[in-house]
Amino acid sequence: QAPTGGCSSTVNNKRVKVRDLFIACLFGLFLEPNFNTTIAYEPSVKKPNIIEIIKEKSGYKYLKKALTYIRLARYKEAIEQFTLAIESKDLRLPHLIDCYLGRGFSYLKLNREKEAEIDFVTALNLTSGDEQKAGIEEYIGLIYLNQLKLDKALRYFKEALRVYPHNVVLLTHLGAVCYCQQDYLEALSYLNEAIEINPKYILAYKYRG
Prior knowledge:
Elements: H1 7-12, H2 15-27, H3 47-57, H4 59-71, H5 75-87, H6 95-109, H7 113-126, H8 130-146, H9 150-163, H10 168-180, H11 184-197, H12 202-208
Helix pairs in contact: 2-6, 2-8, 4-5, 4-6, 5-6, 6-7, 7-8, 8-9, 9-10, 10-11, 10-12, 11-12
């Protein structure tokens, strides 16, 4: 039987939970950047010295400080450092993406969802790999779900599902959005598929029930 009831009350009562889920998903993306992987230098120069100079005199030092502030839950200071890192103009990919993701995360923790949305969309536009794009699309979709912008949430979740067609979390997100749109048959289709793939995924049963 299709679930009944209003969308607004169902989702609004879970706004904090949605944000916590978003944060849990996002947190592992950018906490431990490897500063040596994308730094270009001439091998004829002593490598340790060049690396230290780059870390000390470029946006990377701001990125490192920002990540420290995130670990300390000092999100205003993290935003300041991420902004300095971005404005330094010398960060290379993927660390520039890390900055936008990290600043968006910090905005989200301060309930500044619009600014978070802008940073995540910017990170998405800078990203070339389909897998990382799908991850960011999921997080943007969760922001829109939290804001009850259901059409936008649906679009981003579907884009992510295109890369991960058997991902039970994405299928459940889509089921939740369709449920909120009162498209119960489509919701059941997504949720049934999620349960078929992973019969132990409890959240899919919760929305289907």
